[in-house]
Amino acid sequence: MSKKSYSRISTANIILLCSLAAGAIICAVLQNATGVVLLGATAVFALIGIVANLREDAPDIGRINAIQYRDERDRQLARAGFSIVGAAALIISVIGAVAAAISGSIPFQIAAFAQLFVLAVVWGVANSIVVRRG
Amino acid sequence: MREASGLSQGSLGDALGVSRQTINALETGRYDPSLTLAIRIARHFGRTVEEVFHVEEEL
User: Fold this and answer.
1) Does B29 contact chain A (CB < 8 Å)?
2) Quick check: ipTM above 0.90?
3) Which of A86, A103, A119, B26 has the most C-beta neighbours closer than 10 Å?
4) Which of A71, A77, A79, A133 should one mutate to test binding to chain B, selecting the residue with the greatest count of B CBs within 10 A?
5) pLDDT at position A2 over 60
6) What is the pTM of this model?
7) What is the pLDDT of residues A8-64, one digit of tens each?
8) Chain A interface, mutation test: which of B14, B16, B21, most A Cβ atoms within 10 Å?
């Protein structure tokens, strides 16, 4: 008789789900129905994706997409994927900052440049950490 | 070596704490293991790392 084994929900996923749930609750308190629906639906879809890939014999692409890494290969593949995501995020953020500057909208400019600044800081810190470990 | 031991990729993966896909990727040369995993695999079969993994010399 084969016994199916399951892994626990990763810390990253717990943080993601809790953030989405907390946001939905705050939106509900503020009577922001759109926010509740958007955050609630995102949390439900994320949870479905995570639970579907909790089984240890889940496909590797499913585990990586769900941030449910089982071993060193999963983590190495995820790092490679996230490095592309990071590069894309930087490029898209620069485009967003340019668009915000052209638009003249102050809230848009603050959001776009804040995102670009935070990404640049994270990039610098991440590079420092990997170089020190390297 | 795995097949000679009568192990499936899944059961070897379970024994080593890695996925079946990782064992498959190792066997097909698509993944180079960490030193820790290479040693665990070698110890599992009672061999040395050099007996299990072959490095092609680059000229």
Assistant:
1) no
2) no
3) B26
4) A71
5) no
6) 0.80
7) 899 999 999 999 999 999 999 999 999 999 999 999 999 999 999 998 788 999 999
8) B21
* Inside any domain, residue B19: yes
Tell me how long chain A is: 134
Q: How many whole angstroms separate alpha carbon A6 and alpha carbon A54? A: 5
Domain ranges for chain A, please list them: 1-70, 71-134
* Number of domains making up chain B: 1
> To which residue do tokens 């810190």 refer?
A125
- In a domain? residue B59: no
Q: Does A124 touch chain B (CB under 8 A)?
A: no
Is residue A72 exposed (0-12), middle (13-18) or buried (19+ Cβ within 10 Å)? middle
A6 interface with B at CB cutoff 8 Å: no
B21 to chain A, any CB pair closer than 8 A? The answer is yes
Decide if B35 is inside a domain: yes
Neighbours of A86 (CB within 10 A): 14
Q: Say how far apart CA A22 and CA A17 lie, in whole Å.
A: 8
B58 in a domain, yes or no?
no
In the prediction, which pLDDT does A56 show?
77
Mean pLDDT of B8-25: 93
Q: Which domain holds residue B14?
A: 9-48
